[in-house]
Structures are given as C-alpha cells and as structure tokens.
Amino acid sequence: MNPSRQPPYDQVYTIQVAQQFFLKHAALAEHYERLKIANANNDSAYYRYAELQYYHKSMAMHFKGFFSATSLM
Questions:
Q1: How many other C-beta atoms can be found within 10 angstroms of the C-beta atom of residue 53?
Q2: Distance between CA atoms of 29 and 59, rounded to whole angstroms?
Q3: How many distinct helices (H) and strands (E) make up the chain?
Q4: What confidence tier does 1 reach under pLDDT thresholds 50, 70, 90?
C-alpha cells in the first residue's frame, strides 16, 4: 500500500470530521435501504444494495465511536 494514501480508518480525526463522515455514511445507509426495499423483487439488486447498506451502516457506527467516546470526557 502506498503510505501517502492511507485508508480513512488509519487517520486521526477531529470530532467535527468524524461527525461529517458519520452523517455521510448514515445518509448513504438510508439511501441504500430505500433502494433495497424498492428492488425487493430483483434478487441480485436487492442483495447488492443490502451489502452497500451494511457497509455504510458499519462505517457510520465506526465514525460515531470517535465523537461519542470523546463527548463523555
């Protein structure tokens, strides 16, 4: 891996940046939830959107940990 291009989870974030990433991924998870439901009759599209929803939901939870843990301090 190129050290100058680290994945987002390896970087240090400010609370504001973590909140922005949380909101972005939460909104995308909701978007893919709607697409998943709209494609309930199409198996391949349904599962593709379900995977994307799961990814963005897990990333939202990941970034929420940055600012919810520091808010307790």
A1: 19
A2: 9
A3: 2, 0
A4: very low
DSSP secondary structure letter of residue 40: T
Q: Which amino acid is at 9?
A: Y
Q: Which residue has the tokens 């909104």?
A: 27
- Per residue in 13-50, pLDDT tens? 688 888 899 999 999 999 999 999 999 999 999 999 99
Helical axes 43-70 vs 15-38, angle rounded to 10°: 160
Residue 42 amino acid letter:
N
Q: Which residue has the tokens 């940046």?
A: 17
Phi, psi (degrees; rounded to nearest 5) at 14? -80, 165
- C-alpha of 67 from chain center: 15
